[in-house]
Every structure is written in C-alpha cells, then in structure tokens.
Backbone:
C-alpha cells in the first residue's frame, strides 16, 4: 500500500509542480502551498497510514488551485494562497483579486466520512428512516454496505452545514477589515461517500432559503436547525465540487457553481425523482 502511495506522490509532483512554477506572478504563495504538500508527504512517510489524509487534502488544494487558474469563471486576477487579512485570525485557503479593494475568498474542505458497516449503524439507518422527508425514500441494502452508504451520506450533509457556518463566520471577520469580499466554498470528495446531487440539494437550500421537495434530508435538517436555533447568514456566493479518487492525480469532475436541476428541465433526471433517491 505504501508503495502505491509513493507512486501517487511521484505522479502528483509531476503534474502539479509545473503548475506552481508556471503560474508566475499570478499565484502568490504558490511555494508555500507546495511546501504544505511536501510537509504532508513527510508526515506520511514518518507516521504511515494515519497521516495519509493530510496528503489527500493537500493534493485537493493543488487541484483546486489549478482549477482556479484555468477556469475563466474565476477571472484573470491574481490568486493568493492563505492571505492574512485579519491579523492573527482564520485564513481562507485562497483569495482571487477582483479589483483594488475586492476579493473572492475560496475555502477548500475535504469531506470524506468513514462510517463503519456495523449492525449498530444499520439500526441508526432504520431509526432515521422515519425522519426522511415526505415523498422521498433513501433505499440501501444491509448486505451491500447499506449502513456505510447511508451513514456517509448523512455525515456528509452535516459537514456541508458545519463548514458553511464556519466559512460564513470567517467571511464576516474578513468583511470587518476589508469590506466587499465574497466567498465560494469548495467541497472535495471521491464521489462515493457523497454524490454531487447531494451537494446540489444543500446548495439549492442555501441559495433559495427553502429545501427542494426531492431532498431526503430536508425535514431532518430543518428540525435540527429549529431545535438548535441555527440561522444561516447566506452570505456565501455559492459552492463548488471537486471529485477525485485517492489514486488519481487529477479530478474526475470540477463543478462550479453547484446548482440543482430545475423541475422544468423535463425527462432525463429520473434519479432526481421526488419519490426516491438512487440506490447505490
């Protein structure tokens, strides 16, 4: 396994080191970004598998950096890695210059829950079925990693919410120092623990202020928000998704902005039927 990871590290260096070198003045802090990757690699080589997640996260950051450099949606402004706007405060992963006093702050989060495929977690799935939104079903089979699939999906949705609130708070702190900034939150994953359509559900809820009728976690999420007094500021500009398997150097998908399908799009989206979610 370690040999496979070492081969992956070598491939990552071959792909992304030139990105840092060729970005020139457009990517400020690129060498610090690369140093963070090298530090994660050194930690993995010293401590083994417990530190492999750090490598995964740093490769995701490198992939997002390249996506921003090549995606015209982000403009052609200077990109800075971990700019210190609030002295001693939390740092955004990237800031894209949009004018003399304006910036687009980009936060990158890797969401990869690992739910054990156990009888205990299967019972949690059965208990939570009654909280699935009306007119929706989330169907999995116990003998086919059902507890893991549902548990990962449930945990990922919770992570979308917690990271969103964290990023809103960070943006508020930056706005107090440099008004006019906006922010995009990038979620990275392999495509197994959560699917893009699940992020679409959350993104549409965040942008519209109401849940989609085909969102199976709508009722559950609304209940938790009411119970805990959670209010979203809805100050983020939106979300992006980067889907990359751990053994791949480049993402399979880069989606920005993430939005759910319109009900007026007609046929072809049977997997988004309000009567069910896809069986995985």
Residues:
């Amino acid at each position: 396994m370690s040999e496979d990871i070492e081969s992956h590290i070598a491939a990552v260096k071959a792909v992304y080191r030139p990105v840092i070198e060729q970005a020139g003045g457009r990517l400020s802090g690129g060498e610090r970004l690369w140093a963070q990757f090298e530090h994660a690699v050194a930690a993995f080589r010293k401590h083994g598998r417990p530190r492999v997640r750090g490598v995964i996260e740093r490769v995701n950051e490198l992939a997002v950096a390249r996506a921003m450099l090549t995606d015209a949606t982000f403009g052609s402004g200077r990109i800075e890695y971990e700019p210190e706007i609030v002295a001693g405060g939390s740092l955004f992963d990237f800031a894209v210059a949009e004018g003399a006093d304006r910036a687009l702050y980009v936060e990158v989060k890797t969401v990869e829950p690992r739910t054990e495929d156990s009888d205990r977690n299967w019972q949690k799935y059965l208990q939570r079925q009654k909280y699935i939104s009306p007119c929706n079903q989330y169907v999995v089979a116990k003998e086919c990693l059902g507890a893991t699939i549902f548990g990962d999906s449930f945990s990922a949705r919770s992570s979308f919410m917690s990271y969103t609130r964290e990023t809103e708070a960070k943006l508020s702190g930056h706005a107090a120092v440099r008004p006019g900034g906006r922010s995009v939150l990038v979620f990275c994953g392999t495509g197994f623990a959560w699917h893009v359509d699940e992020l679409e559900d959350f993104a549409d809820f965040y942008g519209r202020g109401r849940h989609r009728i085909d969102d199976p976690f709508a009722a559950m999420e609304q209940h938790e928000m009411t119970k805990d007094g959670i209010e979203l500021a809805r100050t983020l500009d939106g979300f992006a998704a980067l889907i990359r398997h751990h053994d791949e150097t480049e993402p399979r998908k880069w989606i920005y902005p993430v939005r759910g399908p319109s009900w007026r799009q007609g046929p072809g989206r049977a997997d988004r039927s309000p009567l069910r979610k896809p069986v995985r």
In short: The chain has one domain: 2-113+160-212+231-263. The two ends are 27 Å apart (CA to CA).
